[in-house]
Fold this protein.
Amino acid sequence: MVKMRLEENTKAFLILNEIILTLKEGNEEFRKAAYDILLKISASLKDSSAISDAPYHKLIGMIMGYLSGSSPHIKSGAVSALSVLVYQDADICLSMPDIVPSLLSLLHTKVVEVIKAVLGFVKVLVSCLQAKDLHRLLSDVVYEVLPWSSVSRHHFRSKVIVIMEIIIRKCGSAVVESVTPEKYKSFLKTVFENRHGKTSSKESDAGDTEMMLADSSMKASGSMLEKRKHKAMSSIPEENGSVEQRKRKREKKNNAYASIPSSNEHHSSSGSGGGLRAVQSARHSHNAKSIKGRLEGRQKKSKRNHDQIMTNHEKRKEPTNTSKKGEATHIPNASNLSKHKVGGKRQKINK
């Protein structure tokens, strides 16, 4: 549709309008899809125009037409589209010299969204152009970009510092200083100092890295020597080592058996972890045995007392009397007195 006549490519403008709006979407996948479509369209037009670049330049002119729009959203989207095309082919800025001045003129506006997009375009431009081509646009770029170095809001100052560092690296400090206005010389001096500090820090980091590598190599060689010494010292015959190892195992086993307390000697158990519990259990068993012994003694004593009482009682029931001659006479019970009646009379009992 771009290759058709202008009055017939209304649909092409509508499609391009949707692509530019999608470049400002918040969804990253949508933005990536829009960038891919735009790059494919430009590559197709550039390949098909073997004789003339008219269709490809026509696409660039259609995108630049959105820079004069009233919506900041559309303007910033068109600047983003041109940044993508310049990143793919920076020579279009030389074949179409109106692109850079048109975009730099947008830096005179006060719209934050547009300023961000234009500073991003300038960063892509100075990064992609070669040094000889950048010299042609150097004065215009420096003159338009440096006024935003005094604005720290929205990271404008940091963006300008990055742009100037790239320009100084490609074109040289003397050339950049010659095209810088007098009121921005102090800012340029700060950029020089920061860049010099970065390079010196990189060099020092490289030196530190070399020193660290040397130290690590020395340490590695020392560790290898230590390992060799250890290996030489440990080259004793294995038989002696195995005999000593078995002897140590037997000693450990005997000590382990000796440390186990027997059933009758709980109080003599020796262990660092279970010694206190063994002593407590031994005391408990000893106390229980002493209490049991006292109870058994009391029971035996009470039984002896009971037996003695019963014998004394039996002795009282059957008393004995001694006769004058010292002979003991048995005293019969009252129940046996009735058996000794003779002729209805009781026998006299000698007292």
